[in-house]
Amino acid sequence: MIFLFLTILCSTSIALILKHNDARKGHPLVLMAGNYFMASTIGLLLLGITPEKAYSSETLLFGALLAFLFVYTFFSFAKAVSIAGTALASVSSRLSVVIPIALSILVFHEIPDAPQVFGFCFALVTILLFYFSLKSSSPGHLRFVESFYLFALLLGIGLNDFCMKLFHEWRPATEKPFFLFSIFFFSFLYTTGFIHLKKIRWEKSTLIRGAVLGVPNIFSSFFLLSALARLPAIIVYPTVNIGIILLTTLGAALIWSERLNRFGKWALLFGLISILLLGL
C-alpha cells in the first residue's frame, strides 16, 4: 500500500504547483518544458542505476506515442487550473477513474469481488459529491471553454492511467525505467518544439518551477506502475483518486481553513468507506 500513498502524495503536489505557477502568471508551456526536462533527467538517472534493465523498440515507440497524450493532458490540466480553479480541476480529473477501470474489466477481464464493487460505487459517489460541493460553492455556471478543458482533462488522465496498465500487462517489468524515460524525453522534445514554433519567451522563474514540478510528476508514474504490479486496477485507481481528493481537501482545511459544505462532508464519509471496502 506504500506505493498507493506515494502516488497520491506526488499527484497532489502536481496540482498545487500548477496553481502556484498560475498565480505567478507563468506560461504553462514553459512550465511543461522545465517539468519534462527534469523528469526525463531523473528518468535517465533511474535507468542508469537500475541493475536489471531492458530496452526494446516497442517500448520506445509506445513511450513516444504516449508522450503526445501526456503533453495534451498536462496542458489541459494547467488550463483547467487557471480557468476553473485547482479544486474543481482536481476533482474533475478524478472522475477519469471510470475509464481505466472499465477498460481493465473489458480488456484484461479483471472481475472485482463484492467488496470491490461496492467500494468502486462508493468512490464514484464520493467524486460526484465533491463535484457538487465545489459547484454549489462557486458562483455562476461553467462556461463552454471551462467545461471543454475539464472534459479534456478527464479523458486524457483516464487514457494515461489505462496506458500504464497496458504497459504493465504487455511489457516486462525490466523495461519500466526505459519506458518512463521515453515518455518524458519525447514529451520534452514535443513541448520544446511547440515553444520554438510559437516563439514563446523562455522565463527563467517558470522553468525553475517546472523543474520542481518534474520531480513529483515522474515519480507519480513510477509509483503508479509499482502499485499496478502488486494490486489489480479495480483497487489501485479508485484508491488513488479518492486519496488525492481527501488529501487535498484536508490540507486545504488545515492550512487555509476552508470549510466543507454538506456535500463535502458526505463526500468525505463516502470516500473513507470506499477506501475501506477496496482495502478488503
Total helices: the number is 11
Helicity range: over 70%
Classify the beta-strand content into a percent band.
under 5%
pLDDT below 50 for ≥5 consecutive residues: which ranges? none
Reading the helices and strands in chain order gives HHHHHHHHHHH
Describe the structure.
The chain is built from eleven helices and no strands. The chain has 280 residues and is mainly alpha-helical. It has one domain. The radius of gyration is 18 Å and the shape is globular. The two termini are 12 Å apart. The relative contact order is 0.22.
Short description:
This protein is an all-alpha fold.
Describe the SSE topology.
Layout: H1 2-23, H2 28-49, H3 57-84, H4 86-94, H5 98-108, H6 114-137, H7 144-170, H8 176-198, H9 204-228, H10 233-256, H11 262-279
Helix pairs in contact: 1-3, 1-9, 1-10, 2-8, 2-9, 3-4, 3-7, 3-8, 4-6, 4-7, 4-10, 5-7, 5-10, 6-10, 6-11, 8-9, 10-11
